[in-house]
Write the structure tokens for this entry.
Amino acid sequence: MPGPVTVRIHGRIAIAEVDHPPVNALSHGVRAGLWEAVERVDASADLDALVIICAGRTFFSGADIKEFGKPAQDPQLPQLIDRIEQAAKPVIAAIHGKALGGGLELALGCHARVALSSARIGLPEVKLGLVPGAGGTQRLPRLIGFAAAVPIVAEGGEVPAPKALELGAIDVVVADQLEAAAVAHAEALVASGAPLRRTRDLPAPEADAGLVEETRKALAKKKRGHIAPQAAIDAILLAQSYLFDEALQRENALCRELMQGAQSKALRHLFAAEREVARVPGLEGVAPRSVSTVGVVGTGTMGAGIVQAFANAGFTVIAVASSAEKASAATGRIAKAYAALVSRGSLAHDEADRRMARISVTAELASLANADLVVETVTEDLARKQAVFAALGSLTRPGTVLASNTSYLDIDTLAAASGRPADVCGMHFFNPANVMRLLENVRGKHTAPEVLATVMDVGKRIGKLPIMSGVCEGFVVNRLLAKRSREGFFMLEEGATPAQIDTVLTGFGFPMGPYALSDLAGIDLQYAARQVRMAGLTEREKRADFVDQLYALGRYGQKTGAGWYRYGEDRKPQPDPAIAELLKAHAEARGITPREVTDQEVLERCLYAMVNEGAKLLGDGIVARPHEVDIAMVNAIGWPDTTGGPLWWADAIGLPAVREAMLRHAQTAGAEYWSPAPLIERLVAEGKGFYG
């Protein structure tokens, strides 16, 4: 079999073309092939320079993640980059697509860089809990300076080629004909007779102490709990204390140390899990249906967000409101939302106009007759949704995908109402729908495989991270969240406070505690959701009716200035004595004697309840793998990504310890709520975890 690197000759310039799909990762075969190409050019009297270029859609995307944790094979990437940099003849990187991670590090080791104007460069290792390990923290600052390098290294941001040219990371940018431009630049370097510019020989930039401190504080706030961003600053600063080669060795050692740490393992798990959830078991080889026109029934907050999500991705969107007045109001709200993006500079005016031109809002359901996909977003009322699906089943053509955005209701019941259950599924967006990344697609009992393939494909096309769930109350996210809410309310009855629970969970890494979040979203919305679920609640869950009490008092949260907390003009939550009185009266009325609830108990009962429910989803076949649970909770509710998600986190703790805690809570909080899931019992007995 031919290797991934092919060398062609153009006059006196050698061209090493790498073809290693899908993203030209720097695997051992690629590294060995490039080493041989450099050796060949240096040894040949007939060759003056080497151009490194990639086939396919991109330049090197980085190191081969499949090799992480395995014994390293020479030449390792730092060795290859050093060999390129020390070459006697010019080596030019020709960049298209993206030069990321090790790919950019290799390009930085070349003597020049030529890129298409559409290319982008970046060092995203920090997103995997790592720092660059092949010289990125040492070479990039030498080319563009400390201040410009920090956001690229410590935040993992990507830089468009024109900006990279301005900064000095790229030498030439062209609109097309990349190979010809790279060869021409190589020939010009040879003709000039100038000494090769080796990045390692450039002086290390000075690091302003004030900027370093300011940057560290900003990163600590922006990436709370993450180790790698601070380590990236440490790595860049190595140049201030060590010669280049020593700094490289220390950078690589720091990278390897982080690679063995729990955070990087968790973040790399999520990176791989995102790709895994896209491959739905049973859909291999199933072609999606064609979708270009999308209908959205309902133009409230969620409906308007879904409209924007599709229009932003280039779909023609027909939105249906319940009246002409509401249609007009919805058009105005959507236009206002785009105008706000334009005013902030995050969207060009002409692009906003193009998006609005793709949207039509009407009060006529019949306008959806020719839609390829319809998403229903009306109020969470079963009878109303059944009526919508009955109408859609009649007026849309066979093969049109009919999806519900319901959070809790039974997809199979809606499918039956349509008369076309094979065409019906769930597409559960999260608010705001045009921003939130997760999309829960729901497989009904009779949903056709092509329909499932279609909504997975459409989800990716609109920039979402779609997962597949089976039918159950709350699907993945809301089902697990309901268990956290249950335990939180029970602990409020027993003696905990909203501030304590919020503090414990934000200390664990959640961006907001459940009660501050409830106030932000609106107690009225939480009350409505509780009413939908009331029939399925246990008697104790019904008695823990704090949401009902707040709703009756008109304490809807931030929108009314009071909810679980009270709010002033700064909208910051402040403890409210009225809530303390409400909790006291609630306990007295129900004959509950308050006790001390420890922070450890808060953490375990809130989080282990979610782990247990995730195990039930997995054991019951609602989700195919633990990956779906972890991806859903990290991307929907801000479960800290540094822990890898609830099931990865439980594996890290050890399922025997988790099970033991569940049994302990069963003694005090009730076996009805704390009996370990059958899957947990089986995995513990087998000495396994969710991930093996």
